[in-house]
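Notebook entry, structure prediction.
Reason for the run: the old model in the group folder had no record of what sequence produced it. Starting over properly, with the input documented here first.
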Amino acid sequence: MRKALAFFIILCCVACGQDGKVPGNVLSKEKMANILLDFNLAEAYGRNPVTGSGTRPDTGHLADSLRERRVKTLYAQVLQVHGLTVDAFMKSYHYYELHADRMEDVYKIMNDSANAHNNFNEANRRAHDQAPLWEKWYPRSFHGRIPFLRGPY
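New structure, fully documented this time:
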């Protein structure tokens, strides 16, 4: 009875001592977030390829099987860019699936990264927006004389 109790206490101590540590063969939260974010971008691009002009999604001419093949090819390229095999990624993914609190941290990192990227793109778009050029070319004194510049100024 004492041996069983001692074994149980040691087992509990060892199990509690691993809290917060990620095994060595598992990807870090940041690396996992980057890979999953790249997977999301690859899937969005693979399912809705952009036409040559880059203006609108081209959804009409690709069959579903070709889209699936394209997405799988893009997934393989993402893993290749990150220097991973499918098995190595899947081991890490299953680990994070079993540890929901850590997977939530991964999703928070992904969300923060996507928001930062969107904020950067929005700031860049605003910096290069052409709308203020009309005010530079045509001072406010012309606004009443030019029909398309009339407005609540």
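Summary: DSSP finds six helices and no strands in the chain.
The old model has been moved to the deprecated folder.
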